[in-house]
Amino acid sequence: MLAAKTVMEQGIHVEGINFFTGFCVEGHTHAIREKDKAKPKRNNSLWVAEQLGIKLHIVDVIEEYKNVLINPKHGYGQHMNPCLDCKIFMVNKAKQWIAENDFDFIITGEVIGQRPMSQRKATMPIVAKESGADDLLLRPLCAKNLPATLPEREGWVDREKLHDITGRSRKPQMAMAEQFGIDEYSQPAGGCCFLTDKNYSAKLVDLWKARDNKNYELDDVMLLKVGRHIRPQPNFKLIVAREEGEGRFLQGYKKDYISMACVSHSGPLVLIDGSPSAEDLYLAASITARFGQGRDAEQVDISILSKDGSERTIQVAPMKTEAMPKEWYI
Amino acid sequence: MIKETLNARRLLCPLPVIRTQDKVKQLQAGDRLEVICTDPGVMQDIPAWCRINGHKVLETISGDHEYIIILEVGA
Ligand code: SF4
Q: Which of A29, A105, A236, A316 could join A274 via S-S bond, C-beta 3.0 to 4.6 A?
């Protein structure tokens, strides 16, 4: 936001690009959980674009991003976040976009030293070089600490009016925001991407391990954001809705997964991912029963809906909480 | 008159916005598009996207877990 504003102040026309990888935090989550309904549901990029009075282009990169996440040349960060490869990928996409849409150069809000892995001084030229953007990539917030780029050398941008921010402190940005009269300054310190989340990353690694490969579909990564995930056996896991909103969301997947619910008592909808045997389904049913109102009953009725729409009901004893090993919870 | 209807049910934001954006690209100024969604986030996101990009929201309807937005493509 501040990078765009800095350049716009010089009379330069700016438009925003937002890449949707499938792992962006805002968006999906608020649709799912009931308890999140009260929170504001705005999309941050749209909001920023509106504050700046610029157009925003949201680009779906779900398919192409798979290769970035599956084979990151520069490895992962603290969790499953391939930040450096991700930046290279996005800047490269931006480079293609400006060529197709007749724009002259790219700006990003990167600051040297702000993020431990991807915003070190050493990584700045890597992003520029490996993305192919080279000196078409300008970082207005720390440009003075970097070699002059084409827009600066050509005089399209006045380098003197750019900044020299470094380090993790956000104070200079706060001061700049105040100077620009931006009172609600939106720049989350990480946390806009599920791949930086420890629990989410653990579920992703579990999924890859269970399938013995790293391929995924959008539905897989969406479902990792929803419910409790319980893996009692390597060949299947349960996704248990934690509340009504999640239950409603999981309903949409009943054609693609085996699903279960308690019919003799109230209880959550559960999806089964993997290839469970007939015996495994009994185990899954007793776990499903554990999360319903019938958890203390001797026996409950669980209905099992297959992907082909056929339904049957079985009787099981709910599993006792103490009988469920902690390692089952992903 | 509504020219096209976009089914964005089950998609979570920002996908309904992306699909709307892609559909609008194929339409002409003045055309009306109806977008049907299940993510309540669209009630903020699609109007915001329209404001930014010069399109007009004519009507928003909140139903039983379904949200409909009718917009008119700008020039
Ligand atoms: S946090 Fe996520 S979106 Fe951001 S650079 Fe890292 S991997 Fe990419």
A: A236
| Residue-level pLDDT at A24 | 86
β strands within A40-107, DSSP E: 56-60, 106-107
Kindly name the residue from B4, B11, B12, B13 that is annotated as catalytic.
Answer: B13
What would the pLDDT profile of B17-68 be if each residue is shown by its tens digit? 999 999 999 999 999 999 999 888 899 999 999 999 999 999 999 988 899 9
Contact A28 B51 (CB under 8 A): no
Whether the CB-CB separation of A218 and A22 falls below 8 Å is answered with yes
Residues in chain A where the model's pLDDT stays below 70: 26-41, 116-117, 185-191
Which atom number of ligand 1 is nearest to the Cα of residue A21?
Answer: 3
Is residue A252 within 8 angstroms of chain B, CB to CB? yes
Domain end (from A194, A212, A240): A194
Domain count, chain A: 2
**Domain with B28 in it: what CATH number?**
3.30.110.40
Catalytic site includes residue B50: no
Which of A173, A194, A215 marks a domain boundary?
A194
- Domain interval for residue B21: 3-72
Inter-chain touch A31–B12, beta carbons under 8 Å: yes
Establish, for the pair of chains A and B, how many residue pairs have beta carbons separated by less than 8 Å.
73
Range of the domain at A292: 226-328
Helix axes A44-52, B42-53, angle to 10 degrees: 30
Q: What is the pLDDT of residue A277?
A: 96
A59 has a chain B CB within 8 A of its CB: yes
Q: What is the pLDDT of residue A190?
A: 46
**Inter-chain CB proximity B14 and A18 less than 8 Å:** yes
Q: What is the CA radius of gyration of chain B?
A: 11
CA distance A316 to A97: 57
Q: pTM, whole model, 2 decimals?
A: 0.90
Is the CB of A37 inside 8 Å of chain B's CB atoms?
Answer: yes
ipTM: 0.91
Percentages helix, strand, coil for chain A (3-state, rounded to 5) are 40, 15, 45
